[in-house]
Amino acid sequence: MADSDKHAFTIQGIEALTQLPVPRSVRELDERDLEAVADYLERVLQRERAGMDGLFQSMSQTMKYIPRFLLQSLAQKFIEPPIAARITTHLSLKQSVGIAAGLPAAYIADSALYLEPAFAAEFICALPAKHRANCWEALAQRHPMLTLSLLVHVEERLLKKLPISAVLSLSESEMDESQLRMFSSLKAAIG
Q: What is the Cα–Cα distance from 55 to 59, expressed in whole angstroms?
């Protein structure tokens, strides 16, 4: 991986961890210092999450015994998207898709904010075609920059079928270097 690609990948990782744009002063760090910041953030989050993974693992195991229609109803009413995302990471893809198939696209889009980009893309792409399209559309409208980072992980054959006009209409002047590269490769893939 080229140094500029590695730098951009580290920036993306920090943005995924924080769900915030990386400040310019951090972007300008050399690769070694940038990786140190990313490692530090990861350790802070790990410490913060300590013990919670066991809870989410237990919840995901319990969910196997609850009918899907009930889980779908409970999720919308009582489980906030960040919690749903954490539980999703402890379910199989098949289980996650089965539950998500009955949830509103906006709820899935908001939950995707809290998933690793590659997994979020895989998860949404595994949904039934109509629901998948609705989720990508909701995601593109609600979180266009996040959608851009997820689309990098989508197979080219699917990209052309997705309703992502909100992402394609983003202003390039508001993008940083890594986002511009993602945007350019997305436009090239779509044709």
A: 6
